Amino acid sequence: MKKSLRQFMLMTLMLSAKLCPAQNEYLAGYLMIPTGEKTDPSYNAGFSMYVAAWPLLRTYPGHQFQTGLPGTWMFAQYDGKPPKDMYSDVEGGLGWWRDTRFPTETPKFIMGGVGPNFSVIANGPAHGWGTWENPRGLYGVAQLSPWLLFPIDGLNLKQGTCGQLFGYGYMKLPLTEPKSTTSGKNIPTGNNCWTLFLNTANFKGPVAFFLPHFWSQATVKDPNLAGLLLDSRPVDPNRHVQMETQYIPCQVSQDSKGESFARIAPTAFPFGVGGKSSLVHQDTAYNDQALWNSVSAWFDGKTPSTGAFNPKGATIRKYPGTGSATWEIKTPRASGKEEKVPIDWNAFATPTDLGQNTFGYSWNFDHVTKTKTASGDLVTLPEYFALEKGKDGKQGKWKPVRVDQVPAETGLQKLTWDRPKENPEEAYTTPDVVGSTWKKPGPVAGPFKAKLGDGSVVTYYWYRFADQPALLNADLTGAERERMQIKVEKIHRSWLKNKNYLAPPTVGELAHLDPAQIVKPPKGFEIGYVPIATKQELASSPN
User: Fold this and answer.
1) Sequence-separated (6 or more) residues with CB below 8 Å from residue 248
2) What three-state secondary structure class fits 117?
3) Which residue in 43, 316, 391, 526 has the most C-beta neighbors within 10 A?
């Protein structure tokens, strides 16, 4: 993990501690999911993968909770060494974040674009860093689909999703044209529109894309970055795949003999065939033959592109079934430093090649248990651990133990992991000023409302694609936006939401999105118009 990312995570943790004081101890770390041989660098036009979606914790523990389910980091590819001290990528995915305003036990999806050294962040349409007076990514993503509403707080999966596969990936599309200037400066902006594609049970196809200006805007302040960002660079196909966990509630206690014991909140993984957990499936890298070439030719007046990823331009990355874990229990000390002691992950979990291009875990059922829920079966990890002290200068480990091996005097058995009472989250809002880009030229239909399974209500309007606020803030002329409009109308006519774009999975079942997000364009606005969320609030909000 690069230094700038570590600094960002530390900053996030410090801010979180001020906003919502955490318990004394917590569990955090990474599950590493390595691939085998390196992928040919020519497969640099995008990626896709299927990842399991499930409730990691039995009970949502409050806004300290931040963790991703298995995901990846999409960095730019360079001909030589990458730029020094410059961090920029796409690292969103399924998970829970401290700034999620309407969380449940079911994960959400965000896009997670990161500009140079976290100068800007875009998580979806109208969702990012900064304020509307000083946006730092709020206009970084444009809506493309006319059938899927993207809530400001992130895409919702159907509540109760339990182990089904969520298919997603990013492919570059030539929706814009290369520019020789950026914000009036003689600095180029490329035309890589990295577009989110989904494959779920009730929606398939392109959803939204990062605007090239989201990346290139940094070059106005630092021209040395020109040509080095994702607006113009391909992507490195040799991506890391990991599961990053920053906080799981935990408590440590000692008995009268001075022996240390710990208990973590009930934490679970999917229960699959043979009791094994399938986590990542069909991780694929693509070259230009997969989609870019056919779409470019289509936009130039040649044969229409079906939008399906051409398998001749695809290569599936292999998982040898190896892996490691850095999960550790962290205990703050008076010195200000944390004591970090790893848990013995290998005592109960073994990384496994499950066949058919699938990575997962097999489990030691002496330490884990099968748990039935209303939505499906889960493997619950051991809750109780005893500290085994290291010998000969070696670090100790937290070893899993049975509940009857933990002295009652520790009080750990009496712990409950209820959802904490927190103040209601504020509504997401967007500018309501008459002369703003949200109002001029403004929407063509609305308002409409969608009630989501997370307890929130989204207010949305229909905008002509070229007139949506993100495009009006993307350093594009009216003529450039109109040329985009023509391209997008072609896509809306041909790329329907019930066609396969990613190759279907060969194992498991597809997850469902929250059906309230599947929308139908109003009559007369079926082609060339998109739904844009303008507000999201709790359903019980008086506003």
Assistant:
1) 26, 27, 28, 56, 57, 61, 65, 67, 264, 265, 267
2) helix
3) 43
Asked whether 453 and 466 are in contact (CB, 8 A), the reply is no
Buried b (16+ CB within 10 A) or exposed e, 333-368: eeeeeeeebebbbebbbebbebeebbbbbbbeeebb
Enter the DSSP assignment of 312.
Answer: G
**C-alpha–C-alpha distance, residues 318 and 459, integer Å:** 43
| The two structure tokens encoding residue 359 | 């990575």
Q: What are phi and psi of 72, to 5 degrees?
A: -145, 170
**Residue entry with tokens 């000023």:** 433
Summarize pLDDT for 407-457 with one digit per residue, the tens.
999 999 999 999 999 999 999 999 999 999 999 999 999 999 999 999 999
Q: Cα separations (Å) of 525 from 30, 489, 496? A: 46, 11, 15
Q: Does residue 75 register a pLDDT over 60?
A: yes
349's CB contacts (< 8 A; 6+ apart) are 325, 361, 362, 363, 364, 368, 381
Q: Are 155 and 93 in contact (CB under 8 A)?
A: no
User: Could you tell me which of 312, 306, 308 has the C-alpha nearest to residue 287?
Assistant: 312
**3-state class of 483 per DSSP?**
helix
- pLDDT tens sequence across 213-268: 999 999 999 999 999 999 999 999 999 999 999 999 999 999 999 999 999 999 99
What is the gyration radius of the CA atoms in the chain, in angstroms? Answer: 24
Say if residues 517 and 450 touch (Cβ distance below 8 Å): yes
Per-residue pLDDT tens digits for 468-494:
999 999 999 999 999 999 999 999 999
Chain centroid offset of residue 165 CA: 14
Q: Find, among 306, 296, 356, 347, the residue nearest to 325 by Cα.
A: 347
CB within 8 A of 372, min separation 6: which ones? none
Phi and psi angles of residue 249, each rounded to the nearest 5 degrees, phi first: -60, 145
> Does the pLDDT value for residue 14 go beyond 80?
no
